[in-house]
Design a protein that fits this description.
Length: about 260
């Protein structure tokens, strides 16, 4: 499979760009290129780097605790402005890009994406660069990014307290289970509730497309939430009751945020 091209990325501190053009990258000028990058990439050795490697090297130099988006509490992402009305930016954007093609890929959330490509995009997110996926980006890259993001949320997307309460719903069935889960969701901090809302409605659409994706609600719950399969299954199949005001990530919202970042 042809290696995925690097996305457009921007260095926050310098305003310089690395942009894919005609199979290559247009490198920043010497005057604006970060000093750390100039030390590691010189005119003598720049040719040995691929466009992807150049973009990753620049992104790595930009990562700080303030720019990180993965393995960060959801409340902290809101403080940093990395959110869409409370929904964590990596989650919102990956869902928006994934759904832009109509969820037509088989094995979503079951088949992993290229680790090298997933790690590259994670680096870009952690650097604070705006990430633009290519139109032909593998859907499995996006689902792997989502699963990695969810896995690394401190306290889980449900929050530590919410996760414990969900585990205690074992034994409940039917409407009793749905009512209890709705009660738990209503007590979650807003960044957790909003991100969970967007995710579960997305998974509902993946499940509704199961004739194509071959992934129904139970399969999705087992792949993504193995510790709370029952509650996750109920959230997907009863979205209307548990999340009556759906949050639907769209490419229009992503584009708008590029021009007017959330505060």
């Amino acid at each position: 499979m042809e290696e995925s091209q690097p996305p457009l990325v921007r260095a926050r501190s310098t305003g310089s760009f690395l942009k894919h053009q005609s199979g290559g990258l247009e490198a920043p000028s010497k005057d604006t290129e970060p000093k750390a990058i100039r030390r590691s990439i010189t005119l003598k050795n720049v040719a040995k780097y691929t466009p992807r490697e150049l973009a990753i090297l620049q992104a790595q130099e930009e990562i700080t605790e303030e720019t990180r988006a993965f393995a960060v509490p959801l409340e902290e992402l809101v403080r940093k402005g990395k959110h869409y009305n409370g929904v964590a930016s990596p989650l919102f954007e990956c869902i928006a890009y994934l759904e832009a093609d109509g969820l037509s890929e088989e094995g979503l959330y079951r088949i992993p994406g290229s680790k090298k490509t997933v790690d590259m995009f994670r680096t870009f997110y952690d650097s604070g660069f705006p990430v633009l996926f290519h139109e032909n980006e593998s859907a499995h890259t996006l689902t792997s990014l989502i699963m990695g993001f969810l896995r690394d949320i401190p306290g889980t997307i449900f929050s530590s307290e919410g996760f414990s309460k969900l585990q205690n719903t074992r034994g409940l069935q039917g409407q009793d289970l749905v009512d209890q889960i709705k009660s738990i969701v209503e007590t979650l901090p807003h960044p957790h509730a909003a991100s969970l809302n967007a995710l579960m409605w997305h998974l509902r659409r993946v499940s509704d497309n199961r004739q194509t994706t071959k992934m129904d609600a139970r399969n999705l719950s087992m792949c993504i939430f193995p510790m709370v399969v029952g509650p996750a299954l109920a959230m997907i199949t009863h979205c209307e009751e548990i999340f009556p005001n759906p949050i639907i990530p769209t490419m229009e919202a992503v584009s708008e945020a590029r021009h007017h970042p959330p505060v």
